Amino acid sequence: MKPVKVGICGLGTVGGGTFNVLKRNAEEIARRAGRGIEVAQIGARSSNPRCDTSDTPVTSVLEVADNPDIDIVIELIGGYTVARELVMKAIDNGKHVVTANKALIAVHGNEIFAKAREKGVIVAFEASVAGGIPIIKAIREGLAGNQINWLAGIINGTGNFILTEMREKGRTFDDVLKEAQALGYAEADPTFDVEGIDAAHKLTILASIAFGVPLQFDKAYTEGITRLTTADVNYAEALGYRIKHLGMARRTEAGIELRVHPTLIPADRLIANVNGVMNAVMVNGDAVGSTLFYGAGAGMEPTASAVVADVVDVVRAMTSDPENRVPHLAFQPDALSDHPVLPISACASAYYLRIQAKDHPGVLAQVASILSERGINIESIMQKEAEEHDGLVPMILLTHQVIEQKIDDAIAAMEGLEGVAGKVMRIRVEQLN
Amino acid sequence: MKPVKVGICGLGTVGGGTFNVLKRNAEEIARRAGRGIEVAQIGARSSNPRCDTSDTPVTSVLEVADNPDIDIVIELIGGYTVARELVMKAIDNGKHVVTANKALIAVHGNEIFAKAREKGVIVAFEASVAGGIPIIKAIREGLAGNQINWLAGIINGTGNFILTEMREKGRTFDDVLKEAQALGYAEADPTFDVEGIDAAHKLTILASIAFGVPLQFDKAYTEGITRLTTADVNYAEALGYRIKHLGMARRTEAGIELRVHPTLIPADRLIANVNGVMNAVMVNGDAVGSTLFYGAGAGMEPTASAVVADVVDVVRAMTSDPENRVPHLAFQPDALSDHPVLPISACASAYYLRIQAKDHPGVLAQVASILSERGINIESIMQKEAEEHDGLVPMILLTHQVIEQKIDDAIAAMEGLEGVAGKVMRIRVEQLN
């Protein structure tokens, strides 16, 4: 059979990795796919010193979508603007698309998939979540027999690197962030990573394919890791927990929880032991129970691994009846559910509270009564010695599971107590059984 | 579209689970697959008290393969004899097959896939390895862009339960085995589990789809966990390792290593922390690096999860051109490689050696010279106090990586020393980076 011709748009880290993997493993990939996959064109403004593209014609990005010889457009430029234009143009021209662009899919995916359906083409996006881990495929196909109950993921490597360093070496957030920037793990503007926006993009995609709801990035709750102190990391450790920046999606009777925030996880859970820049996603289904998928969440070749797997999938599916393909969002487009995404105030979680008490025994009684009046049960209490510099006594509580609105209300009451100094630190706790 | 009609053959644990999951999640599954999946017939000798099959016709197993209404035959009876006859008959009749039968695939898969290809039907077998973990799909499709370097799996839950109990509670192998049998984790004849035959079946399948070689169960090396002592478990722990019963497949220039045996793994590896009956498989690819896939490796509904996912896959692919489907063994049948499976004597590994010395300082010098004469480097040495009852001094060595033949030769020389009592205990060590 004739080789399939692909055009790679964007020759940065992932584009360069994709080019190199397709070249290096060409024979192995053809043995699997049953036909060759040829990089027939590259759309890029500049070359990549790590790629030998001397045999491949290079043009501007949008021209690739117009090249009649190209079967599959691989969008690896990132961002919402040109990437969106490129993808829509490629679809309009009847080309299949492979993309690693989580922001594009999370924000414009509904529109993109509708257009792709109209044109009978595939838009594949495995590389958009958790790099080389085939998590989209696992949820969309591998667990297709299940009703997914929840999923929880460490899906931002930069954030996990920072939390790992804070825990293992007692370093501060700011200190590690600077190193991460120097190492190239974090951007000069780290907002997307440390405020959980990047993770929320990925979580939005995972939740859609797990629960069969449209992409609703604007409804995801996002809380970053910038406020975490080494004290909290250490108290969590003493209580038998680790703090991870988790993307969490859960289906309840009332609706779907969709939230990214620092989370205490029991230290003996596998996911609590995922360290450094590595990613992992747990998925809990009614038949399979809990599963975990682990690997490199970013990087030149790990992400390329997912891009190339998508290309092979497209090569196999492109000759099939569009109605029998795996639906973009795992569920048939006319079978998506309107189960609502819950506001964070209606989400349920257990909580870690750190209260700075001026007068420990008295405050404990008041705090306990604030919680008990609201029907919030205390799981455990830890009191530490006064910190020398301010004489305040840190009081750490773990609560049972409760609706967020109630804990917010309780915290407001605690912060109104005369014996409590400053803000109460609140971190959610998940058991992830 | 008309529902797809499946026949479930075998209504034991997995068959019952498959029946129940298909019923309970019928709506969710149809929302994904785009059409209903109906259990139109059951082939079984007896009913399953955990299934309400009152609405479903029950017949003898082989009749299901002859029922012209059935599109997909689900083989869940196990064993080689009737299962093989059923699968071949179903294929002959142009039916697609889903099976959870690792022994059947590992031993007769080449013949079965050849026949399926001739008839243009699919034989899906995700449930045959690691229960609910979609590991076949991950390797065959999700990592299709990679040259797989190696894979390593905890793929027998019974064995892992025994090793976990030995380590966590200091219990003996025999003691835990009896409990596992009482709990139903282990068979009355536990040979398949504890001698590694079950794991070798699964490893054979994983190695074929990872490296693109025919199934060669007869060439897999198998070593059980029956000789492991709590002393070895504790020494390993003291050295920073855990002992797991690992299925290990590695591609080298010389050939493919295919081996199941107890293995020391650094305690901080994620896979070293997979406990109880849970399974996990690490896969290392040239682009993606190391990945890990974790979940329940057996049980009624976890295994059913994989069976049903296969059914959904078959429903999607059954209308497609057979040439464009995912090949049974991941690589096109005419592109399988004849890269040989290596005999265990030619496999490379690091080793843990436990030597019972009568006279410690003298023996150490002799042992060191035996190793050094054969070019085997010592990574570390641990000497323990004499055990009271026999006055023998346990001497534990970790070697660098070496070809097995050399270590066998060295062990033979050590066992010939006058100062060494009995056999040298030898356990392989893998770093699994």
UniProtKB/TrEMBL annotation, chains A, B:
One of the GO biological process terms: threonine biosynthetic process
Gene source species: Azomonas macrocytogenes
List of residues binding L-homoserine: 187
Pfam families from the UniProt entry: ACT, Homoserine_dh, NAD_binding_3
Protein known as: Homoserine dehydrogenase
ACT domain residues: 352-429
Active-site residues from the entry: 202
Family: Belongs to the homoserine dehydrogenase family.
Annotated positions binding NADPH: 102
Residues the entry annotates as binding NADP(+): 9-16
Catalysed reactions listed for this entry: L-homoserine + NAD(+) = L-aspartate 4-semialdehyde + NADH + H(+)
Pathway: Amino-acid biosynthesis; L-threonine biosynthesis; L-threonine from L-aspartate: step 3/5; Amino-acid biosynthesis; L-methionine biosynthesis via de novo pathway; L-homoserine from L-aspartate: step 3/3
EC number: 1.1.1.3
Top class in the EC scheme: oxidoreductase
Database matches in PANTHER family: HOMOSERINE DEHYDROGENASE
InterPro entries: ACT-like_dom_sf (IPR045865), ACT_dom (IPR002912), Asp/hSer_DH_NAD-bd (IPR005106), HDH (IPR016204), HDH_cat (IPR001342), HDH_CS (IPR019811), NAD(P)-bd_dom_sf (IPR036291)
Molecular functions (GO terms): homoserine dehydrogenase activity; NADP binding
Keywords: Amino-acid biosynthesis, Methionine biosynthesis, NADP, Oxidoreductase, Threonine biosynthesis
NCBIfam families cross-referenced by the UniProt entry: PRK06349.1
Tagged with keyword Amino-acid biosynthesis: yes
SUPFAM superfamilies tied to this protein: ACT-like, Glyceraldehyde-3-phosphate dehydrogenase-like, C-terminal domain, NAD(P)-binding Rossmann-fold domains
